[in-house]
Design goal:
Distance between the termini: 38 Å
Mean pLDDT: 89
Strand order of the largest sheet: 3-2-1-4-12-11-5
Order of helices and strands: EHEHEHHEHEEEHEHEEHHEEHH
Helix content: 40-55%
Structural class: alpha/beta
Low-confidence stretches: none
Number of domains: 2
Radius of gyration: 21 Å
Largest sheet: 7 strands, mixed
CATH architecture of the largest domain: 3-Layer(aba) Sandwich
Number of strands: 12
Shape: globular
Length: 339
């Protein structure tokens, strides 16, 4: 299978991006990668990593859309030679290219995916869907939307629920994913006008909808998919990430505060390392932009080479399991169309 990777997106690009691509093709037998970006720099990096083979090719792109750039939608149109736009064009124009990955500007990836590729037939709006760690080691929970749509209608949340449920089945092999709606209380009648209306729609969908969930219960491991509008979902996501960072920094400060605590750390070193790994959201790969005609995955901005390999494997799994086709088939059955 062939994927395209934005070589100049992310905090550690292009070094870690190119290194991750080399690691991926060395590990995955039938994988080909196209890296977009400044050709000479990518060539030099491939030589530095001692890559020899024909499974990586380069697509020339002279400019870069950064996270500091304003108005991503305008830049997608005005910077056709940027690494993100070149990658999107390759994804759109080549049937054998099954997915795209970028660790670059989230706004540009989302705007480009919507403008260049378009939506799956029947989906009202695509959604950004990261997977978060839970109390159950090795089990993640899909949270969508996390920022692509700040203002939503009930039908948008219904479509998010369908996409999230099928994604959980396809990528993580969950047989009957438990889908919950983020709200201010677990009672059916709790929430805003949006969440109350969405609740009624979700209850009648052919998914395993288990009702409302409060933000404090997101990481219990009792749920597989959590549905939210992009505004609430983004706040919930950033709160989780900030809390994890706060806990680890306080723990580190406590460990180094005295000789006694340093000695105690020696006995707890393995357990604390496991805790750090469990809290690392990068272990679950990137956030997929669900609802576009082909898989687009947004890797974390601080992704290293190992993280890029994880995202590549994630992209291949989505493409291999006909994720988009499954969504179209369900939408045809239930006839849930935006008015």
């Amino acid at each position: 299978m062939k994927i395209v990777v934005d070589g100049f997106g992310g905090d550690f690009s292009p070094n870690e991006i190119v290194k991750g691509c080399v690691m991926a093709v060395n590990e995955i037998k039938d994988l080909e990668i196209i890296i977009t970006g400044k050709e000479e720099i990518i060539k030099n990096l491939l030589a530095e990593f001692k890559y020899k083979g024909n499974k990586i090719s380069i697509a020339k792109a002279e400019t870069v859309i950064t996270c500091d750039d304003e108005n991503p939608a305008r830049l997608i149109r005005s910077m056709p030679d940027s690494s993100i736009v070149v990658a999107l064009d390759i994804l759109k124009q080549n049937e054998d290219v099954v997915a795209m990955i970028s660790a670059g500007s989230t706004g540009a990836v989302l705007a480009g995916g919507f403008l260049k590729l378009g939506r799956i037939k029947g989906i009202s709006r695509p959604a950004l869907a990261p997977t978060l760690p839970t109390k159950i080691s090795g089990k993640g929970v899909v949270l969508l939307d996390c920022g692509a749509n700040a203002d939503c209608k009930p039908i948008n949340l219904a479509h998010f629920a369908i996409m999230g449920s099928i994604y959980s089945q396809t990528v993580y092999g969950v047989e009957n994913p438990k889908v919950a709606l983020l709200s201010v209380g677990v009672e059916d009648a709790k929430g805003s006008m949006l969440s109350k209306s969405a609740f009624k729609l979700l209850k009648n969908l052919p998914i395993n909808f288990v009702g409302n969930i409060e933000a404090r219960d997101m990481l219990t491991g009792d749920y597989d998919v959590i549905v939210a509008d992009g505004f609430s979902g983004n706040i919930a996501l950033k709160s989780v990430e900030g809390t994890a960072s706060f806990v680890m920094s306080k723990l580190k400060k406590s460990i180094t505060s005295s000789i006694k605590s340093k000695v105690g750390y020696l006995f707890m070193k393995k357990s604390l390392k496991n805790l750090k790994n469990d809290l690392d959201y990068k272990q679950y790969g990137g956030s997929q932009f669900l609802g576009c005609k082909k898989p687009i995955l947004k890797a974390h901005g601080n992704s290293d080479a190992k993280s890029i390999v994880v995202v590549i494997k994630q992209a291949l799994k989505v493409a291999q399991n006909n994720y988009n086709k499954k969504i179209e088939e369900m939408l045809e059955k239930i006839n849930l169309i935006e008015e």
